[in-house]
Write a structure and sequence with these properties.
Enzyme class: oxidoreductase
Strand content: 5-15%
Mean pLDDT: 93
Structural class: alpha+beta
Bound molecules: FE2/S2 (inorganic) cluster
GO molecular function: 2 iron, 2 sulfur cluster binding; metal ion binding; oxidoreductase activity
CATH class of the largest domain: Alpha Beta
Number of helices: 5
Keywords: 2Fe-2S, Iron, Iron-sulfur, Metal-binding, Oxidoreductase
Protein name: Nicotinate dehydrogenase subunit A
Domain 2Fe-2S ferredoxin-type: 6-82
Number of strands: 5
CATH topology of the largest domain: Ubiquitin-like (UB roll)
Number of domains: 2
Largest sheet: 5 strands, mixed
Order of helices and strands: EEHEEEHHHH
Length: 163
């Protein structure tokens, strides 16, 4: 029965969210159009710009290339879910603000989510590892130097907080 194959639930930002989506629909489309989570941006729709980056089970992924039918039991985190339970900014968000690591900011949610995936795996990355990890994210405004600096600062803040 076709309706039985619809996707009716996704775990997003720590909560189970009800929806009704074709399994072939992209995660990005469902997040934005059905769940009102518009922080993840549509840039290319082809996995080439990173504007749509989210975390899936803690790993950065391009949500424009992921079908919701593949996500049963997976945990999705979007930029809206990155802040702590108290609502405070994540260290990456604060670092991007402090260092003004954006101009138009269209790429920023994806940059922050890609960086969050990196810091989760590697809390103290070398600069070359940051550059390598951010290869899938494009900033048309060219703020790469400040983006790398912000990620480095966030890594330092994380380290200080852990002491
Ligand atoms: S919109 Fe997903 S990578 Fe560009
Ligand atoms: S700040 Fe404009 S695309 Fe990155």
């Amino acid at each position: 029965m076709a309706s039985a194959r619809r996707v009716t639930e996704l775990k997003v930002n720590g909560a189970s969210r009800a929806l009704d989506a074709d399994p072939e629909a992209t995660l990005l489309g469902v997040l934005r159009d059905q769940l009102d989570l518009t922080g993840s941006k549509y840039g290319c729709g082809e996995g080439k710009c990173g504007a749509c980056t989210v975390l899936i089970d803690g790993q950065a992924a391009h949500s424009c290339r992921i079908k919701v039918g593949t996500l049963a039991g997976r945990s999705i985190t979007t930029i809206e879910g990155l802040a702590g339970p108290s609502g405070g900014l994540h260290t990456l968000q604060q670092a991007f603000l402090d260092l003004e690591a954006f101009q138009c900011a269209y790429c920023t949610p994806g940059m922050i989510m890609a960086a969050a995936g990196l810091l989760r795996e590697k809390p103290e990355p070398a600069e070359s590892e940051i550059v390598e990890a951010m290869q899938g994210n494009v900033c048309r405004c060219g703020t790469y130097t400040r983006i790398v600096a912000a990620i480095r600062r966030a890594a330092g803040m994380t380290k200080e907080a852990a002491r």
